[in-house]
Structures are given as structure tokens and as C-alpha cells.
Amino acid sequence: MNIRLKPDTEEWLKSQVTEGRFESIEEAVELLIAEDRLTRRALDSADLSWAQPCIDEGLAAVEAGDVIPAEDVHKALLKHPKQR
Fold first, then answer.
1. What's the number of CA atoms in the CB half-sphere (13 Å) around residue 30?
2. pTM of this prediction exceeds 0.85
3. What pLDDT is attached to residue 36?
């Protein structure tokens, strides 16, 4: 199989091989895909039912109009002393 990568992705892969993280681009792709498959299996089998109350609370807040626009949150974060 031959695939065409975006130039920046190809350059990143080449740099990873040069740095010794992988033996070859092919090995990098194989290992990264294997890692992604394991992560997806773990997520698919994870019990996330604990999060449902938080999701329900957030959805109720949105329905009630109890929201802060993202732009306002971003501005507030930029003003925070630790962000400078």
C-alpha cells in the first residue's frame, strides 16, 4: 500500500526517525497505529457512566441560558496573572 502524507506530517516522521525514536517511517506508522488501536479499545471498554451527571448538569445549564461565551472565558484567562 502506498499513502501520500501531508508535507508537515512527512517531515515530522522523518525527524522522529533521525532522532532515533523509530527505525523507519514504516515502523513509526505501524507503532503509532497500534498505539491508537489500543487507546481506542481502552476508551471503548471504559465505564464512563460516572460522567453522566456532569453531562446532564452542563446540558441543563445550557438549556437555562446559564453560559459564559467562550470569548469572555478566553479574555479572563489572558488577564489571569499566571498566564503572563
1. 7
2. no
3. 98
Element (H, E) at 60: helix 52-63
The per-residue pLDDT for 80 is 83
Render pLDDT for 20-42 as a digit per residue (tens, 0 to 9).
999 999 999 999 999 999 999 99
Question: In the structure grid, which three cell numbers stand for residue 53, read together?
Answer: 451527571
How far apart are alpha carbons 63 and 40 in whole angstroms? 31
Q: Is the Cβ–Cβ distance between 29 and 13 less than 8 Å?
A: yes
C-alpha distances in angstroms, 78 versus 69, 74, 81, 84? Answer: 15, 6, 8, 7
- Distance from C-alpha of 80 to C-alpha of 84, rounded to nearest angstrom: 7
Output the CA angle 56-59-53, nearest 5 degrees.
Answer: 15
